[in-house]
Amino acid sequence: MAKKLSPRVTFAPGSVPDPPEPVVGDRSSDPGPGFAVRKLDLEGHGVRLEPLDEGRHREGLTAAIEDGELWKLPVTSVPHPDDLGGFFADAEGAFAEGRDLAFATIDLGGDRVVGSTRFRMIAPEHLRVEIGFTFIAASYQRTRVNTAAKLLMLEHAFENWGVNRVEFLTDELNEASRNAILRIGAGFEGKLRSHMVMRDGRIRDSVIFSITGPEWPAVKERLESRLGA
After folding, report:
1. Other C-beta atoms within 10 Å of 144: how many?
2. pLDDT (mean) for 75-89
3. Spatial distance between the Cα atoms of 68 and 94, rounded to a whole number of angstroms
4. Which of 82, 121, 218, 219 is the most buried if burial means most Cβ atoms within 10 Å?
């Protein structure tokens, strides 16, 4: 049987892997466990995730958000195209603080930006991360793009970072997002009551799902099977 090739991981322009960058969360007085968080491309299954960059991605992300007027959806936090400057600045600030690693989602077939996603709440000391703040242009929803992007991120989290747990949070009222997370293979854990205040002032209850290390091989096989169908 031919050996299966892993999706390609490449470092983003300007990123130099040697010497290794500092481990996020590492402390000289308490080295503890942790993993290196750096900007890199994740590519495979017809999708490339590029570290979010305003100069490279603002125009494409604007078009993706306008495709379906995503900012109007009350159960999401998609920025208005006019507010993307703050969106990029917040993403960069969160990366500098070791909290987030945001990506532009690229459809390789059309060579276009179709959305964004990110690693959030990165906790190297606990080998835990959340995948979230995901949005995709309306014309690319319910295609293989989201499945491929999630597979790339889960592979990186479990197989490169060696995390024990990946979390997913969404609005309790966002049925489409809840169903998408379940289709990935994540398990429902419960509800966080009065968890967030949305832009319209609504007090949101969030629901939380997760995939753990022992569950990952079965989830990976399921996702690869879906993408290969």
Report:
1. 17
2. 95
3. 27
4. 219
Does an H or E element contain 64, and which? helix 54-66
Bond before 22 cis per omega within 30 degrees: no
Cβ–Cβ < 8 Å for 92, 187 = no
Looking at residue 105, what is its pLDDT? Answer: 98
- In degrees rounded to 5, what are phi and psi of residue 134? -100, 130
Is residue 70 a contact partner of residue 76, using CB atoms and an 8 Å limit? Answer: yes
More confident site: 126 or 15: 126
Name the region of 7 (left: φ>0; alpha: ψ -120 to 50; beta: rest).
Answer: beta
What digits encode the pLDDT tens for the residues 176-190? Answer: 999 999 999 999 999
- Is pLDDT above 70 for 18? no
